Amino acid sequence: MVRRVVVLLLAFVAVHVTVGILGYQQPNEPMGDVYLVYEPWSRCALFGGIDVSSCTRSDAWAWPGITEKWIYPQLAFLPMTFAWVFAWAVGYTPAWAITVSLFNLVAFVVLVGSGRSRGRVLAAWFWLAAILLIGPVGLYRIDGITVPIAILGALWLVRRPFVASVLLSVAIWMKVWPAAILAAGFVAIRRRLALVWGAVAVSLATIIPVVALGGAPYVFGFVGDQTSRGIQMEAPVGGLYMFLAAFYVPGSEVYYDGGVLTFQVTGPGADVVIAAMTPIMLLVMLAVLIVGARKMWLGATFLRVFPPLALALVTAFIALNKVGSPQYYVWLFPPVVIGLLLDRRRWYGFGALTLAIAGVTQWVYPLVYDGLMATHPAPFPVFLLELRNLLGLVLMVWAIVRVLRAPTHRVARPADLREWVLGRRSVPARQTTT
């Protein structure tokens, strides 16, 4: 067992060093967000008087999310500033890679445990393979910080629901996507109030200081920013427009939006699609949650509902979103890690498909990404991009089907709904052959 743990830890180091170096070798600035965005933002807040040119306000001190609107929730600022602990010695970009690697290491050690569980070991190998296949974008983005936090939160949902909720809520206040895992946990575990109190505690601990520092107008600024955005060129919903732009169909083109620092695509009817996608995404996620809740109410187990429900919600967050970046696909890792840990035989397929998606994602970004950034992108990179998006849609549908097919053992009575929601007791019900 000790040897197995040692091998995993050596593999962990090798994978992170390899991916960290690849960031310096690959084209199209896979580390660009770190030194072009995270470093200036954090520098302005910590050392505003030193480098005024990098601040976006007229004064030297600028706190994103507090003194000005920001595209991220406020706690995203914490890892960006924490990286300065190492930056004095190695520079900010390597310091960021070290920061993400340390977060990963903590979650990895907890995941592996003593090395006796085959499910845990398999999940650990999957995670390392996924990190390697998705490449630098998984390491040099804020999303990379949220993945290990989400894994820890998902691991502790049943035994330590309050702690799990705190961890997941911290991740949500860095990047919204872990809300999908928290929502799946609320449906699938009995101690739901512990999840509520954990989320409330973290939210108040975030909002009160922000308001006290004068950031009340910007507390939820990241929500409005996301809903008002156009169609990002990597988003699955933009696939048709990318092909139209690639083949020079009039009115369809890729353009750069300097306000949100990303490439977007437009074409015939784009405004209608922009307006419709967020409601569609939310409605699908709500419908999936309702299905999962009914399955649990009818007596399904945490084992059979939580992992596919979490994966279904996360993939819907990606596949039905008008905003889409390559780093979003690291969001798939926590649900699949948990699925492999808990029920590995039923999750081999999900794991294999997720690894395929990760590999194609790195092929798209950064390797052929320059072919996508033109007003009329090259057809082959567009094909690769949409292949990845199609695989993501397949993964979403597969996960939803798995939720729909989760076996149940009871028929719940409406009078028991309150007790089920509060998690006070199991629903008394007769047996069924479902």
Provide an overview of this structure.
The protein is mainly alpha-helical. The protein has 17 helices and five strands. The strands form two sheets. A three-stranded antiparallel β-sheet has the order 1-3-2. It has a two-stranded antiparallel ribbon with strand order 4-5. The model is unreliable at 49-53 and 424-434 (pLDDT under 50).
Q: Output the number of helix runs.
A: 17
Order of helices and strands: HHHHHHHHHHHEHEEHHHHEHE
Class of secondary structure makeup = mainly alpha
Largest sheet: 3 strands, antiparallel
Any idea what the shape is? globular
Q: How many individual β-strands?
A: 5
Please estimate the helix content.
55-70%
Radius of gyration (CA) equals: 22 Å
Numbering strands along the chain, what is their spatial order in the largest sheet? 1-3-2
Average of pLDDT: 90
Give the N-to-C terminal Cα separation: 40 Å
Quick rundown:
This protein is mostly helical and 434 residues long. It contains 17 helices and 5 strands.
Features:
two-stranded antiparallel ribbon, 434 residues, mainly alpha
